[in-house]
Amino acid sequence: MSDVITDRPTVSDSAPLPQVTLHQPRLPRWAPAAVAALAAAVGVAIGLGAGLSSRAQWGLIAAILYVAVMYAAATRVEGRRQAKDRLATSLVWVCFLIAVVPLVSLLWETVARGVKVLDGAFLSHSMAGVLTIQPGGGVYHAIIGTLEQVGIATVIAAPIGLLTAIYLVEYGRGRLAKAVTFFVDVMTGVPSIVAGLFILSLWIIMLDFSYSGFAGSLALAILMVPVVVRSTEEMLKLVPNELREASLALGVPKWRTILKVVLPTAIGGITTGLMLAVARIAGESAPIVLLVFGSQAINNDPFEGAQSSLPYYIYEQWANGNDASYDRAWAAALVLIAFVMILNLVARAIARWKAPKTGR
Q1: Which residues are within 8 A (CB) of 302 and not within 5 positions of it... i.e. 6 or more apart?
Q2: Does the pLDDT value for residue 334 go beyond 80?
Q3: What gap in Å lies between CA 259 and CA 261, rounded to an integer?
Q4: What is each CA distance from 3 to 6, 11, 62, in whole angstroms?
Q5: Is 284 helix (H, G, I), strand (E, B) or coil?
């Protein structure tokens, strides 16, 4: 056999091997915060120098500078590929801040103006016998009306929405399910004033019932049903089919599987969706103006006579056009925001309490 001759170069044992490293240069952790501070300072300076009076314009200039400087610095230090990742991250943060700033501004303005008259007397008195141009009065009658109207609407809409969602996910097949899905989608986009006009023509004009809190609850229930259906439907779809199949394989009837397996698994999301639907209808004013008609006095009977509510009270006080009414309107708006926040906290508590236990 002939010797095999190769052209490969030989490396001497004494020659050092090249150093290969996987470490890539990175910007320091404090770089994004430093660039943000620098961009904010430059944005303010440009805004003042250009005579821009709006702070929103200063913020947009600072945001553009932040994105541009971060991309340039990341390209120089980390490379183009990592710079694109930095660019996407910067855009996400900027969009997040743009979305949060109006919310924080709204909450700050409402709290700052609402605390002027918000006290125990304001929460425990109505507007009966109070002149609109004078301080005093309260929001008690509106709180009672909102609690009763939203409560009745929830009692009507929650079972209908829940059962409809169960039908669509667990039983719905064929044309009927498609028709139900179509009408739910249509109802999702129905304006609140249309729901109020429908109940007005049917309940009050055709059936000759009087204006009442219950009439307003019927309109609110129409608005609430599609939200409950959609949120519950999505939560039920997230339940793994293996859980259903395991229960059915043990001989458990389908209705009992839904009741004991599917619903407890999705109860957290269902409760959250229900509270979101309640929060949505709690701030509706158009159906209340048409059907409840407003009242200055306390009316604890939602089935007879005109009632007030927090959205209607805010609209009514702001329409009065004087400083005392403006203060009451801001205070009522703060009460309404607190009401919605309490609903969300209750939803989270119920979801955590009823969620399936994990671990051993």
Answers
A1: 145, 148, 149, 152, 212, 213, 214, 217
A2: yes
A3: 6
A4: 10, 20, 72
A5: coil
> Residue 307 CB: number of other CB atoms within 10 A?
32
Residue type, position 208, single letter: D
Cβ pair 76, 31 in contact under 8 A: no
Contact 290, 282 (CB under 8 A): no
Mean model confidence pLDDT for the chain: 84
Q: In this structure, what token pair is assigned to residue 204?
A: 């009050």
| 322 DSSP 8-state letter | S
343, two tokens: 């609903």
Please check the confidence at residue 6 and state whether its pLDDT lies above 80.
Answer: no
Q: With a cut of 50, say whether residue 360 has pLDDT above it.
A: no
Is 207 strand, coil or helix? Answer: coil
Any idea which residue has 């639907």 for tokens? Answer: 277
Q: What percent of the chain has pLDDT over 90?
A: 19
Query: Cα–Cα distance between 103 and 153 in angstroms, integer?
Result: 28
| Dihedrals phi, psi of 293, to nearest 5 degrees | 75, -10
